[in-house]
Amino acid sequence: MNLFSPVISQLEHGLQASALKQKTYAANIANVDTPNYKAQRVSFQSVLEQQLTPGSTTHRTDPRHISFSQNSVSGIKLETLHTTQRQPNGNNVDIDLEMAELAKNQLWYNAMTERISGKFSSLRSVINEGK
């Protein structure tokens, strides 16, 4: 019996990837005036490959033990963008693009947190009704 549905696990991975994207956008914004700084992006391809590859599981000594997946965002790659140069000092950070992507990612993160909160509220309701 699996107490948590696969949806909760998928939401967890989505939240982790979104948090990494948020950190990347924040780093780009923080370095907007740093000479020769090149903007970075979270590689969508590496995120997709990681989610499609089945994770390893822990060794269980008893079939009744819960299996835990080893999936995380640790293997996601950051790509450095070398295609454009926005400033004469060699920096290629487009502050408007970074702020827009940051806002879009924040909305995505908020939607996922609301969804996972709803899942846990449903579990809490089931547990409380069973008393």
TrEMBL record:
Residues 14-38 form the Flagellar basal body rod protein N-terminal domain. It is found in: Bacterial flagellum basal body. One of its GO terms (cellular component) is bacterial-type flagellum basal body, rod. It comes from the Bacteria. GO terms for biological process: bacterial-type flagellum-dependent swarming motility. Keywords: Bacterial flagellum, Cell projection, Cilium, Flagellum. InterPro entries: Flag_bb_rod_N, Flagellar_basal_body_rod_CS, FlgB. The keyword Isomerase does not apply. The basal body constitutes a major portion of the flagellar organelle and consists of a number of rings mounted on a central rod. Belongs to the flagella basal body rod proteins family. Structural component of flagellum, the bacterial motility apparatus. Part of the rod structure of flagellar basal body. This is Flagellar basal body rod protein FlgB.
